[in-house]
Specification:
Mean pLDDT is about 95; it is low at about 1-10. Helices cover about 35% and strands about 20% of the residues. It contains seven helices and eight strands; from the N terminus they run ααβββαβαββαβαβα. It has an eight-stranded mixed sheet with strand order 1-2-4-3-5-8-6-7, sandwiched between helices. It has about 300 residues and is an alpha/beta fold. The protein has one domain (about 5-305): Zn peptidases (Aminopeptidase), CATH 3.40.630.10.
Length: about 300
């Protein structure tokens, strides 16, 4: 084996191990120590907000709270940025994940896994200069009863993006990326999808509406250049009428005319503990999660360095 191959293998193993350890700490803190992060448990939601901000601060970031009021209480998105290195390029890529949960659940996969991902993405991506600015956002109030309303954290942020001088060229919502494996059964919203996609839930998916299909194909192409065959990502392009296609924060950006994707393990089409008290830390596949995070980091970095997007 060549020295280069040994170094590459070492970096892969060491890098994944670091991501696993960091992600486990984050998920355990959010899902076990804090627990239910719904508006009904307001103190927990604020504790989660402060913890996430502290994690970013520990990595050298300066988090900004995008605070707004709903029903007499304050809620906040948490925003950090990795400035682009190309002067005069006023373009932004947003990578987001929500940190709230459905009431009565600890939300290990939905969506502490996404929060672990965006914190790790910040740590990894700050080491690699990119032409385009990457904005990382932890959104509040994604779950019911606020889902689909103007009070969603992502809706607040997306509407403000349309008034910003900097143009958001792409948004990717990371929502549930830690549940998967060769022995996990996979289901689909349509019967004919079973002929195209695997029967086991060992893959990650990038979902897009037909109008944004080119972005999904680009994401898949870049992701799979860096991923092994077993860690591939598959595209799912379908209209909003298909159940699940619009059930995350990317929907808020669709409504504001901003290209957006959903990066997910397919949620309830795979995970029977979705939105129940069974969504616990011990159901997370940390090898699957860490590899997904690493490949997402590669993909974001490559997209942020492209001259143009579709």
């Amino acid at each position: 084996m060549s020295i280069e191959r040994i170094i590459t293998l070492y970096d892969y193993i060491h890098g994944n191990r670091t991501i696993i350890l960091h992600s486990r700490d984050i998920i355990q803190h959010l899902a076990k120590k804090i627990g239910d992060r719904s508006p009904a448990n307001y103190e927990n939601l604020i504790a989660a907000r402060d913890y996430i901000a502290e994690q970013f601060t520990s990595l050298g970031a300066q988090p900004f709270f995008e605070t707004y009021t709903v029903q007499g209480r304050e809620f906040s998105n948490i925003i950090v940025e990795i400035p682009g290195k190309k002067q005069g390029r006023d373009e932004v890529i947003i990578i987001g994940a929500h940190y709230d949960t459905i009431e009565g659940t600890t939300g290990a996969n939905d969506n502490a896994s996404g929060i672990a991902a965006i914190i790790e993405l910040y740590r990894i991506l700050t080491k690699h200069p990119m032409k385009c600015t990457v904005r990382i956002v932890a959104f509040t109030l994604e779950e019911p009863p606020f889902f689909g309303t103007e009070d969603m954290g992502s809706m607040i942020h997306a509407s403000r993006c349309t008034k910003d001088k900097r143009r958001v060229v792409l948004m990717a919502s990371i929502d549930m990326i830690g549940f998967g494996g060769r022995f996990v059964k996979q289901s689909y919203p349509m019967e004919d999808m079973k002929d195209k996609y695997p029967s086991c839930g060992d893959f990650l998916s990038v979902a897009a509406l037909p109008s944004y299909s080119q972005y999904a194909f680009l994401w898949k192409k870049i992701h799979n250049v860096h991923a092994s065959k077993r860690d591939r990502i598959l595209e799912i392009v379908a209209p909003a009428s298909i159940d699940g296609m619009n059930l995350s924060d990317h929907m808020s950006f669709h409504k504001n005319g901003i290209p957006a994707l959903l990066i997910t393990d397919t949620g309830y089409y795979r995970n029977k503990g979705y939105h129940t008290d069974k969504d616990t830390e011990d159901t997370i596949n940390y090898r699957f999660l860490s590899t997904n995070i690493k490949n997402i980091a590669h993909t974001v970095r490559d997209i942020a360095n492209r001259k143009t997007l579709p």
